[in-house]
Write a structure and sequence with these properties.
Blueprint (H helix, E strand, L loop, with lengths): L5 H10 L6 H8 L6 E4 L6 H9 L3 E5 L6 E6 L9 H4 L3 E3 L6 H6 L12 E4 L6 H9 L5 E5 L3 H13 L5 E4 L6 H4 L4 E7 L24 H17 E11 L8 H11 L3 E4 L18 E3 L1 H4 L4 E8 L19 E2 L2 H15 L7 E6 L2 E6 L13 E2 L1 E6 L4 E3 L1 H6 L5 E3 L2 H8 L4 E2 L8 E7 L2 E8 L3 E4 L14
Parallel strand pairs: 5-6, 5-8, 6-7, 8-9, 19-21
Antiparallel strand pairs: 1-3, 1-4, 2-3, 7-16, 9-12, 10-12, 11-12, 13-14, 14-15, 15-17, 17-18, 20-23, 21-22, 22-23
Helix pairs in contact: 9-10
The structure holds S-adenosylmethionine.
EC number: 2.1.1.178
Keywords: Cytoplasm, Methyltransferase, RNA-binding, rRNA processing, S-adenosyl-L-methionine, Transferase
Function: Specifically methylates the cytosine at position 1407 (m5C1407) of 16S rRNA.
Length: 473
């Protein structure tokens, strides 16, 4: 049962549109959320995923605003986070309304996916929307994903790697810096802002126990500073999506109106009333989506789409370029050797629209659209770590195997995949000629690398990814 305090209920009563009832708001806030997932099309098609999971008893109900999103049900009581399919990144457990902002960002004009596209996700962890955006970008172009909290950057990276994202650069800043460091650089920006989280009461019944409107003032100031920074970092003609899981006007509409007050006619609100069938039910007069829990039986959410019509003046001078970037382009001979190693050992062709970079005997793959940004700010991690150079040959990195597709993989059974994810070797029934390093897979998507010794597959899963428990259907 959700814990509301009277101040919160009074504020909702003032804000709720006249066609929605307070009784429904309370009833839906007390109802458990429907379980929803998003299929990761970087690894599997929606049709193949449905086919795979239907055989395991899943039922799918499509989410109207996300072609890859489904409410799912299953008669088996199983922890989804411990399933093979989750661990190998075939799907992400994501609340349905949280799939709205990336859909809005890529709707309409912003559909031209190419190697030069640059997208910024300003407040990214744990990465549900970052990984959704990467899938919408089909791993092309550059996606800069920023997170202010150090511990949450680690979770963000784990999710980006698990989902096979290859076009991402991670940063760790207060996102107020982007307008200054990367002025008018991005085609699209998502600001999924830190907020009071009022919309999440169905997940956390205590979320509003001590709700106090006055305490939200600091959050609103941050949101206003962040949206200004986002607008400065946006190219002319670019699209910005501002979203929160808060319900109040102050954290939502007022923040967007603040942007218009600061930047005037350069700011255009784009109506989302046709984003999907029945989107108009949640639309405000400005064309923003204000999703109350009872409209689509989801968490509360707010989404606004904003276009930048003209350039706006920088607020501070461009900072000096940083020197001492630790990476350099791999020499042609090394790049050729590395490409042959990937091709001959794993059947992987390294993508053409990416640069092979080198740092202290490590080889990385950077998205090409990253090059002009080098030195403009500090990046925690860029692209994919491919391999370490050994005295003789290379040691491939797990994240590269998860992100780069290969036609040459050994598909494991359910039981074998479970053993592999628990760090165990896999015995082979027949002794054959040893094959060296091989990619092992489940449902045609990679699980990791093993050494084929002829009579067994020796497990090479990184220790930190070994699980104690795997849930099998
Ligand atoms: C709503 S959550 C983001 C959820 C994420 N977009 C997702 O879909 O998985 C907001 C995030 O903003 C981060 N944050 C807080 N203050 C920030 C700031 N000044 N700059 C950047 N990120 C900030 C929080 O740590 C939190 O992870």
């Amino acid at each position: 049962m959700a814990h509301f305090n009277q101040n919160f209920l009074d504020s909702i009563e003032r804000e709720l549109p006249t066609h929605l009832s307070m009784d429904d708001f309370i009833a839906y806030s007390n109802k458990p959320l429907r379980l929803s997932i998003r299929v990761n099309t970087l690894k599997i098609s929606v049709d193949s995923f449905i086919e795979l999971m239907t055989t395991k008893g899943w039922q799918f109900d499509p989410i109207p605003w996300c072609a890859e999103g489904f409410w799912v049900s299953n008669n088996v009581d199983i922890q989804l986070g411990n399933t093979i399919e989750h661990l190998q990144g075939l799907f992400y457990i994501q609340e349905a309304s949280s799939m709205l902002p990336p859909t809005a960002l890529f709707d309409g004009e912003q559909t031209d996916i190419n190697a030069n596209l640059r997208v910024l996700d300003m407040a990214s962890a744990p990465g549900s929307k970052t990984t959704q955006i990467a899938a919408l970008m089909e791993n092309q172009g550059l996606l800069v994903a920023n997170e202010y909290s150090a511990s949450r950057v680690k979770v963000l990276h784990a999710n980006v790697a698990r989902m096979g994202v290859a076009n991402c650069a991670l940063t760790h800043f207060d996102a107020r810096v982007f307008g200054e460091y990367l002025y008018e650089t991005f085609d699209s920006i998502l600001l999924d802002a830190p907020c009071s989280g009022e919309g999440t009461i169905r997940k956390d019944p205590d979320a509003l126990k001590n709700w106090d409107n006055n305490e939200n003032k600091g959050i609103v100031d941050t949101q206003k500073a962040l949206i200004e920074s986002a607008f400065l970092a946006l190219k002319v003609g670019g699209q910005l999506v501002y979203s929160t899981c808060a319900l109040s006007r102050q954290e939502n509409q007022d923040v967007c109106h603040h942007l218009k007050t600061v930047f005037g006619d350069a700011v255009e609100f784009t109506s989302l009333n046709k984003l999907f069938r029945h989107a108009d039910k949640a639309c405000t007069e400005e064309g923003f989506l204000h999703v109350w829990p009872q409209i689509y039986d989801s968490e509360g959410f707010f989404v606004a789409k904003i276009k930048k019509l003209t350039s706006v003046e920088r607020q501070v001078e461009e900072p000096r370029k940083q020197k001492n970037f630790p990476f350099s382009e791999a020499k042609p001979k090394q790049a050729t050797e590395l490409k042959s190693y990937f091709k001959e050992t794993f059947g992987i062709t390294l993508p053409k629209d990416a640069e092979i970079m080198e740092r202290d005997l490590e080889y990385w793959l950077f998205p090409k659209a990253m090059t002009p940004l080098i030195g403009k700010m500090r990046f925690q991690r860029i692209g994919l770590k491919l391999a370490d150079a050994l005295k003789k040959g290379y040691k491939v990195r797990h994240e590269a195997i998860l992100a780069l597709s290969s036609p040459d993989m050994i598909n494991l059974t359910d039981e074998q995949a479970k053993e592999f994810l628990m760090g165990r070797d896999i015995s082979l029934t027949e002794k054959v000629k040893p094959q060296g390093e091989v990619i092992v897979a489940y449902a045609n998507a990679p699980l990791g690398v093993a050494k084929h010794l002829g009579n067994k597959l020796k497990n090479n899963l990184p220790r930190d990814l070994v699980k104690d428990k795997i849930a099998l259907y």
